[in-house]
Amino acid sequence: MKNSLATEWHPNLWPPFTQITSSKPPERALKGNGALLITDDGTSIIDAISSWWVTLHGHGNKYIAEAIYHQAQELEQVIFADFTHPQAELLAKRLSKATGLERLFFSDNGSTAVEVAIKLALQWWHNQGEERQHIIAFEGAYHGDTFGAMSVGERNLFNEPFEKLLFPVSRVLWPSTWWNDPEIDAREEKAIRQLETLLKVPTAAVILEPLVQGAGGMAIVRTEFLEKIEKIVHQSKTLLIADEVMVGFGRTGALFASQRGKLSPDLMCLSKGLTGGFLPMGITMASKKIFDVFLDSNPRKTFWHGHSFTANPLGCAAANASLDLLEDNSNSYLNFESRHSPHLKQLALHPKVKKVRLAGTIAAFELNTNEEAGYLNITGKAIKNMH
Ligand SMILES: *Cc1c(COP(=O)(O)O)cnc(C)c1O
C-alpha cells in the first residue's frame, strides 16, 4: 500500500486536465531514476506513461544532464533574432538530415509546433496570392490545446466551451486497426473515399498524426493506409502536415513514424521526446518548397512569428544529447516490437482483453467493460487506485 505524505491538494496549484473534487491528490515526486519515480515517502513507482510520453532514455539520464550543465555554464539563453548559436545550428543540421526537411523553426511545445505548421501552411498559399483556408484533419485527432491546435483536433468535452471560436475543419475517418480485424479494408477504403471527396475543394493542408493517434487512444493505422494518403495528398498538390509530437524520436520503431508510412510531409511538428524529456521545446520542420515562398523583399511575405525562448540553448543541448543517445542505441527502439510481441500475445488470450495492437514501443489493448470507451470510463480510475 502507498503511504504518500501528500494527502491534500496544494492550495495554490492548478493541475492540468484534473477535476480536483473527484480526483485523488497527486503523489509528490522527489527523484527520478531510469524507469522509476521516487516519491516523498520513498516509494518507487514505474513511470509507465514516460511522464506524458516525453521521457525517452529514462529519468535522470546523466549524459543529457551533463550536456545541459555544460551549456548552462556557456550560454543559457540568447535572443534568436540577430543571433544564432552553435547548439541550434548543430541540431538544425542533424534534424534536417534525419527528416529530409531543410528548415527548422523553433517554438516551445507541441501545441506551438502545430500552430506554427498551420500558420506556415496558410501563409504559404497567401504569399502566392491564393487564399486557401480549407484544412482537413482526422476524426479522433489530438494536436494540442492552443486555439489553432484545438481547431484541428477532435471536438469533444475538452474544448466544448470554446467551440464557437474554433475555425472549421473537414474530418476524415481514422481507420485504426488491431490484431485480427476483419473489416479494416472496408474502413480504409471509406476513409480514402472521404479524403478524395474533400480534396475536391481547394485545400490548404491535410494534418495527421502519422501511424498512431496518441491522446486519441493509441489508435494505430496500417502503413499501407499512410502510403495511400501520401499519394492522394501529393497528387492533389495540397500540403501535408505530419504531427510527430508524440510518435517522433523512435516511439514507433523508426526514428520518425512518417518514415514507416513512407510519408514525405511538407511540414513536421516535433516536441515531447525532442529533448529526451528534459526541457520543453517545439520544432516545426519545413521543406525547401515551403521556405522558398517566404523569401521576398516584400515584408508582407515574412513569417512574423516567434517566441521569447526560441531555440533556447539548454533545450538545444538536451536535444543534441538525446539524438546522440538515439544514434548510439538505435536497437533500443528499432527492435522494440519483438520485445513486446510475445507478452502481448499472452495478454491477447485473456477474455477481457480486446483490440490488441502494436507499433514500435507502443503496445495497446482495450478492456471489455460495461461503460463507453474513453477517458471518462470509470475503469481507468479503478485500475489507477489498485496499487
Ligand atoms: C502532446 C501532443 C501535442 C501537444 O503538445 P504539448 O507539448 O502538450 O503542447 C500535439 N500533438 C500531439 C500528437 C501530441 O501528442
List keywords for this structure.
alpha/beta, Aspartate Aminotransferase, domain 2, 387 residues, 7-stranded mixed sheet, binds pyridoxal-5'-phosphate, globular, 3-stranded antiparallel sheet
How would you describe this structure to a colleague?
The chain is α/β, with parallel strands linked by helices. It folds into 2 domains: 48 residues, no CATH class; 266 residues, Aspartate Aminotransferase, domain 2 (3-Layer(aba) Sandwich), CATH 3.40.640. It is built from 13 helices and 14 strands. The strands form 4 sheets. The chain has a 7-stranded mixed β-sheet, with helices on both faces. Strands 1-2-3 form a 3-stranded antiparallel β-sheet, with no helix packed on it. It has a two-stranded antiparallel sheet with strand order 8-9. β5, α5 and β6 form a beta-alpha-beta unit. The longest helix has 18 residues. The radius of gyration is 21 Å and the shape is globular. The site of pyridoxal-5'-phosphate has 15 residues, from α4. Pyridoxal-5'-phosphate binds next to α4.
Percentage of residues assigned to helices: 25-40%
How far apart, in Å, are the first and last alpha carbons?
7 Å
**Averaged pLDDT:** 95
Shape: globular
Beta-strand content bin:
15-25%
Read across the widest sheet, the strand sequence of neighbours is 4-12-11-10-7-5-6
Name of the CATH class of the largest domain: Alpha Beta
CATH architecture of the largest domain: 3-Layer(aba) Sandwich
Name the CATH superfamily classification of the largest domain: Type I PLP-dependent aspartate aminotransferase-like (Major domain)
Reading the helices and strands in chain order gives EEEHHHEHEHEHEEEHEHEEHHHHEEH
Number of domains: 2
Question: Could you list the spans in which at least 5 consecutive residues all have pLDDT below 50?
Answer: none
The largest sheet, given as strand count, sense and whether it forms a barrel, is: 7 strands, mixed
Radius of gyration: 21 Å
Secondary-structure content class = alpha/beta
Number of strands: 14
Q: Which compounds are bound in this model?
A: pyridoxal-5'-phosphate
